[in-house]
Write a structure and sequence with these properties.
Helix content is 57%, strand content 10%. The chain has 11 helices and 3 strands; from the N terminus they run H-H-H-H-H-H-H-H-H-H-E-E-E-H. Strand 2 and strand 3 form a beta hairpin.
């Protein structure tokens, strides 16, 4: 295990004071479940760290974009942020630091190709960011985000339309333009074994419009449902 931690620390250029934080950030719930530590609020997996990392990442990206582009309208800032925190972008960032090879996975997740799963890698990257924040503070987290998440991305030259689409944001804008209620998202069902769960999410606008979609993460299922509902609204406008 120590060799596994050493390798990642060397690659990202930061050595943890509290190695248990790093170990937890790399531990998927499938591993914690199989080892018997997946019970209670502090389960030993990286889900709570991922929750914190998601918030830290959103804050740091928002701060960076406002600092670099004080004259950009809110809409453009939102689209740039949506790209930089998107599951697809975080997946490529995780691949760049070879995060997958350092994860602690359960046997089932290992056999199903967990080290290459987009949602799993994106969540682990957010957990790693949170662990870094808890170990060394906001400046270290900010340095990591600047170097690896933002990297050489030039937001001043990027065309909004060329960015990865955030369907939830696009659906909200469409609903506003049509005078409809704001979209709501509900987890309808969770299925499958602990190491390979599927989430069915419903996107709904008022009582008349809804779509459902399923995926291996709540975020991805929500985006898929939003995409389907957006297509439904677009077809109504075209009719």
């Amino acid at each position: 295990m120590e060799d596994n931690l050493d390798g990642l620390e060397s690659r990202i250029g930061y050595r943890f004071v509290n190695r248990e934080l790093l170990s937890r950030a790399l531990t998927h719930k499938s591993r914690a479940f199989e080892s018997g530590t997946g019970q209670g609020a502090c389960s030993g997996d990286n889900e709570q760290l991922e929750f914190l990392g998601d918030a830290i990442l959103g804050f740091l990206i928002s701060e960076l974009l406002m600092s670099r582009h004080p004259n950009f309208p809110e809409g453009r800032l939102s689209k740039l942020k949506a790209y930089l925190v998107s599951a697809n972008h975080l997946y490529h960032v995780a691949q760049g630091i070879q995060l997958g090879k350092h994860l602690f996975l359960g046997r089932g997740e290992e056999l199903s190709g967990g080290r290459e799963k987009r949602a799993l890698l994106g969540d682990a990257l957010e957990a790693l960011l949170a662990a870094m924040y808890m170990d060394a503070g906001l400046e270290q987290a900010r340095s990591f985000v600047l170097k690896y998440v933002v990297g050489d991305f030039d937001s001043s030259k990027s065309e909004d339309e060329s960015l990865v689409v955030d369907y939830k944001s696009a659906l909200q804008e469409a609903a506003q333009s049509m005078g409809l209620a704001m979209p709501r998202y509900v987890i309808v069902k969770e299925s499958g074994p602990e190491h390979k769960k599927m989430f069915l999410v419903e996107a709904r606008i008022g009582q008349n419009y809804s779509e459902r979609a399923e995926d291996t993460s709540k975020k991805a299922a929500g985006q898929k449902a939003a995409q389907l509902l957006l297509a439904q609204l677009n077809s109504l406008q075209e009719a």
